[in-house]
């Protein structure tokens, strides 16, 4: 096994905890993974710039000296930051709001702008920044390199991996269709970008010269061994860490991960307007006919947020986005450090 990834990131073990967007990341989990010799990560795509600054300060104070950590942002797709909901978008969800006793939103607050977020993040200077959904702008890569920040980019196809390498990112994450949460395809439509992890990894390893992280469907030592054998320099694991003790997953989400339901996952747009892999639940079944008609991300994501929060507060998995990869049934509710050790 090459040590070029561990040397570049300054970690002991070639294990990266996948970042969770939309408020699902947790500082204690990030700290626990970094302290145990891996790379702890935090998804900051939902945070305003001042909160990004505060987050980096909090992580820097909590992570043991000399241990790196990673903060993740989403590269916006063309035009998505200008999208706004129509009256019909609100009305479509009225029955669900009323079912949970929630008021129908009267307005729409768009999420923070990527340019503002990344400027704050670069200024704060975390050791590592990772990206999903696209190629970060050249000015971002240049500034990160100037500041000594390692950059990771996420690819769902070989062509995307090559594009990220050509843009100058330091590490490419080969994210197979097995992975939980949002799919990050950006060069071709989703239907043309669903490559399984263990088909994608060797092709990416052959196509690029930078280190490769395998992601998707890896949850135990066997998956790590297979990924390394196929040419990866390390692995990024999301769902396995989401099930650990330090995660911020809701009780309903934890219960689903620990149940036989975790054996069945689907890609759905219902919760956010962008395809994401989740454990099948009643709401996905109920709204199956609307998969292609809900508004795009981030509009649908914002409109569904109150429903997801209410479901989590009631411990009702019907309304919770139960993000999970296809190896979710292999996850275990143990401390993050113990889980990381089990992977070695």
From TrEMBL:
Keyword Ligase: no
Cofactor(s) in the UniProt record: FMN
Keyword Flavoprotein carried by entry: yes
Gene3D superfamilies, per database record: Aldolase class I (3.20.20.70)
UniProt keyword list: Detoxification, Flavoprotein, FMN, Monooxygenase, Oxidoreductase
Domain of life per record: Bacteria
Family: Belongs to the nitronate monooxygenase family. NMO class I subfamily.
Name of the protein: Propionate 3-nitronate monooxygenase
Source species: Actinoplanes sichuanensis
Source species taxonomy: Bacteria, Bacillati, Actinomycetota, Actinomycetes, Micromonosporales
